[in-house]
Amino acid sequence: MRTAARLDTLGTEQAYVVLAAAKRLEARGHHVVHLEIGEPDMPTPPHVVEAGVRALQSGLTRYALAAGVPELREAIAQSLAARGVRAGPENVVVTPGAKPMLFCAALALIGPGDEVLCPDPGFPIYDSVVRFAGGRPVYYPLDETRAFAPHVEALAGKITPRTRALILNLPHNPTGGVATAQDLATLAELAQRHDLWVISDEVYGRVRYDGRCDSIAALPGMAARTVIVDGFSKTYSMTGWRLGYGVMPASLAEPMTTLVINNVSCTATFVQHAGLAALTGPQDAVTAMVAGLAAKRDLLARGLNAIEGIRCATPAGAFYCFPDISGVLDRTGLTCESFAERLLAEQHTAVLAGTAFGPAGEGHLRLCYATERAELERALASIRTFVGALTPAAAGLT
Are 349 and 379 in contact (CB under 8 A)? Predict the structure, then answer.
């Protein structure tokens, strides 16, 4: 039996492939250091869990409105004021995680043959949803010399009459890069001059180490052409709850809601009430998490830079290091894929090859540092041991 050809356009996330391999090692009794999956290690804040439990016990287990619980939509709209974005509940559509909103945005905005500017390296689902919608990803580079800020001039040079949309992800996965205020202003001017939609993935928006909180949608004229994609997974450590949302022009919210109805009907009601508690309750856990992540970032970046053949920029946001290991690869003949595979097999440390995030990830790794300090120290020791044992002759074994 044949399947529909559209399935062939879908990619995947290598993180889940590596996680499965790591779990097989653990099943055989090995201790594995998990730096592959992008998940905070702090528990969901207790008051959020309690709100979810109360909602369940109160019988909030039936269908919700397709666009989301009104109180949550209102709270989301109000929370955006911290980024300078003016919005009301009519601009908000709630989904079971941020990925469904990425799919909704792609299906609503991208037609066959449309070109979409995607970051490279970048979250692999961007490429996947663009192709699924019939569009063509056009990759723009990030500037490694400026800590992976978008290379605005190079991006501008890739705009053609067929360009329909620009995907931004700030802070950025996998590099932790952010954009300057001037970069955002220039990108906004480009979007307006070329009549582009902007899909702004801001799921790491609260995980920044410079105290800033911004959005391209806050700039003049941009709210009318921007879809903000966000969620609760990273900020509130609610990855398993599956709660996300989109913020968009009110005229787009109705067709987006129709997409939600056709796909998932609605988002679990009790989960939405937990999200309401997360937004409106104490933010101490978020503040403490970001402060802790800053210290872990410094530990990992410093340790990686101390290993011969590895260079690592200090990320400005999110919770990933994206070290350049080309010095090791050039010496040994390994690829970043074989390096990651052998590091897991021999040292039981799970990381991702940079190429899991696009061609520009060649020569890099992605390491998630949202874990215990002891695990980061263990990972650094295993990488030092692994790199120290590599010789040019060893490359022939891969």
Answer: yes
